[in-house]
């Protein structure tokens, strides 16, 4: 795990192009995995002990002090996904038309076709399969009964899709990805993933570098304690778990982050109303509990 200063140096070198992305990644991940906690390192402990104040900056307690971070680094993989999505969107905006034979190649290479059974009479998509009765199918739309459903070929679907990509016939998610995820897609999503793959092949270096720099920046910010305060365990708990902070008026009770003060500190009328609605909520909850619909 790199120290705070080493991280800053790595970021600057990468930004200035003095080090390649691959090498930077190796240096960064070296012997640590993504998600490994930075606070196990000596560097972190030293910097933390310098930063931490003598008392809670919220309630002034001196008991069990921790550092409360208001933001956490986002994962590299999250940034990667987000930036790939943005690049894909830009690409699609300027390359709406796609080549038909390339699309077919991509489709056949990546997907299995699970055709939707159609009624031979009305071409509807609602024939229900019957286990015991013969004929096997009955169309829910036209009530026609039949043994053999008909299917659209991939070629037919693609022709329709290139005429109108929102046509009724091509909306079904009947293409299943051949990878382990077995995702079910319709032709529009297949097209999206093909374009996304193009973008990834074309701009992978730029995208990865952008994502990696954003992730590095997050880590540096986190390690800098820029967005953090010293808080006692109680205040940290209220903030993290209950989304509450100490009321600035009385500095005694906790309040929801969205409110200006705690209930006790509200003007008389509002305080009554708030307490009544809490009481009402409790009673309501009790009634539900008694009726067993809690
Ligand atoms: Zn506190
Ligand atoms: Zn029918
Ligand atoms: Zn208060």
Give your account of this protein's structure.
The protein has nine helices and ten strands. The strands form four sheets. Strands 2-6-7 form a three-stranded antiparallel sheet. Strands 3-4-5 form a three-stranded antiparallel sheet, with no helix packed on it. The longest helix is centred in the last third of the chain and has 38 residues, at 187-224. 48% of the residues lie in helices and 11% in strands. 14% of the residues are buried. Strand 6 (175-177) and strand 7 (184-185) form a beta hairpin. Helix 1 packs across helix 7 and helix 4 (76-94) crosses helix 7 (187-224). The two termini are 48 Å apart. It folds into three domains: 4-78 and 206-240, no CATH class; 92-205, no CATH class; 245-291, no CATH class. The chain has 294 residues and is mainly alpha-helical. One zinc ion (ZN) binds at residues 56, 58-59, 61, 231-232, 234-235.
What's the β-strand tally?
10
Largest sheet: 3 strands, antiparallel
Q: Can you write the helix and strand succession as a string?
A: HHHEHHEEEEHEEHEHEEH
**Spatial sequence of strands, sheet with the most strands:** 2-6-7
In one word, what is the shape?
A: flat
Given as residue ranges, the uncertain stretches (5+ residues, pLDDT < 50) are none
Q: How many angstroms does the end-to-end distance come to?
A: 48 Å
Bound molecules: zinc ion
How much helicity do the residues have?
40-55%
What is the percentage of strand-forming residues? 5-15%
Radius of gyration: 30 Å
- Supply the helix-strand structural class: mainly alpha
**Domain unit count:** 3
Treating each run of at least 4 consecutive H or I residues as one helix, how many helices? Answer: 9
What is the average per-residue confidence, as pLDDT, rounded to a whole number?
Answer: 90
């Amino acid at each position: 795990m790199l120290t705070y200063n080493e991280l800053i140096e790595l970021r600057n070198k990468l930004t200035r192009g003095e080090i390649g992305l691959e090498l930077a990644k190796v240096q960064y991940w070296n012997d640590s995995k993504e998600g490994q906690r930075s606070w196990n390192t000596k560097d972190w402990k030293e910097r933390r002990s310098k930063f931490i104040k003598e008392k809670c900056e919220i309630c002034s307690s001196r008991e069990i002090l921790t550092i409360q971070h208001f933001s956490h680094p986002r994962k590299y993989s999250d940034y990667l996904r987000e930036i790939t999505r943005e690049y894909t969107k830009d690409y699609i905006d300027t390359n709406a038309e796609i080549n038909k034979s390339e699309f077919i190649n991509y489709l056949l290479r990546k997907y299995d076709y699970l055709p939707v059974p159609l009624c031979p009479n009305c071409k509807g998509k609602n024939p229900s399969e019957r286990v015991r009765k013969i004929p096997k199918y009955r169309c829910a739309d036209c009530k026609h009964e039949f043994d053999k459903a008909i299917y659209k070929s991939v070629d037919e679907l693609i022709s329709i899709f290139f005429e109108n990509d929102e046509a009724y016939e091509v909306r079904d998610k009947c293409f299943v990805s051949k990878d382990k995820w077995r995702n079910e897609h319709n032709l529009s999503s297949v097209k999206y993933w093909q374009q996304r793959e193009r973008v990834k092949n074309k701009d992978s270096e730029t995208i990865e570098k952008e994502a990696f720099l954003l992730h590095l920046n997050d880590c540096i910010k986190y390690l800098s304690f820029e967005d953090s305060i010293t808080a006692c365990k109680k205040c940290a708990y209220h903030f993290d778990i209950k989304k509450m902070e100490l009321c600035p008026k009385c500095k005694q009770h906790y309040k929801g982050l969205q409110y200006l003060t705690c209930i006790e500190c509200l003007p008389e009328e509002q305080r009554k109303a708030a307490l009544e609605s809490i009481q009402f909520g409790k009673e309501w909850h009790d009634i539900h509990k008694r009726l067993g619909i809690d």
